[in-house]
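Protein data:
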Amino acid sequence: MIRRTKTKRTYKHALSRAALLATLAVMGTTSVAQAQTLLTSDARYPRVRLLPSGELIASVLSFPGDDNIKIFSSTNSGASFTQVGTINDPEFQTLKSSSPNLFRVPQAVGSLAAGTLILGIVVDTQKTVTSRAKIKIYKSTDDGRNWSFVSVAVSSANSQGLWEPDFSMGTDGALVMHYADESSSCCSQKLVRRRTYDGVNWIDQTNDVALMSDFNLRPGMPVVSNLADGTRLMTYEVCGQAAPLNCATYYKTSTDGWNYGSTSTIGTRITDSLGRFFSNTPVNKVLPDGSILWIGQYMRVADGSPSGLNGTVMFKSASGSPNGPWATLAAPVTLANPVTNGCEGFSPGLQWVASGATIVELQTRLEGGVCKVYFGSGPAN
């Protein structure tokens, strides 16, 4: 039962049965279970993280013009949110920006103290002759209220893009960043990684998934989580495939948070026992009991056709294995008519609260031509 509600580079309502809707509101106000809109203007790429204090910190890329990052706080397990911070950078608007991601550093990494929030964002997405996409890193030492620039983690080798940074920890104490890279001659797009030991300089660029056997294959949207046994799980989409597998979800694992096996293999595809799967912008989240949640933009049946449950459910593996078995779980935020565009259901944010009993979801809907972020919570079982 759903209690309350809830693009990539292009852009959604409807709540289910008997649910109160809640909204994130504009700066200085706190919303309650009423209207649903996170921001009054356009917003994409919602992310949400849980602090040890129980506070939730959320981020979105705000429009028009990809011009800033808005930071929100919830001190009541996602029942309401208040805007508490903003990340402004003139380059966000002049060069355009994309795919920001939020991470709490759990232990000291060089100059980054334990508990520091970092946000990585792609800047310069124009792909002109002079463009050089880069991933800029910002940090907050006061739980998202104030932010400062740290460094450029990586710059593109040419005018092609970088996308979708995701952060995790290596077992050696390094802070690791996985991201998608279009700048290599080997592949239309590949997944790569870098790491930092001093919190500023990012080194050791290495391929994660580079499918050189077919130039058109495009692995992207990496998300790394820690499984119950400490193994790192990385999920990602692989676009450029023939139907029904275009943008299907795959995974690889690592015991040290750095090495994910052969870089030339596609990985293991994730499906449930009926062959159903999520395509486009997959997200995983591991619960305290070891269960894995999996959601994406578009739910498909085995032959690639849209599932009748599209926009209403996510998958859960209670076994804690990415091989399942996977069962459906009601999504806290539902989409009335999800389609594969750059807003509707695109790259949602997930976070557990209440020791894993409740899931908070931030999700995007296209309404009246405007991409809006909604949020909601629901039971994890």
In short: Helices lie at 90-94. The first strand starts at residue 43 and ends at 50.
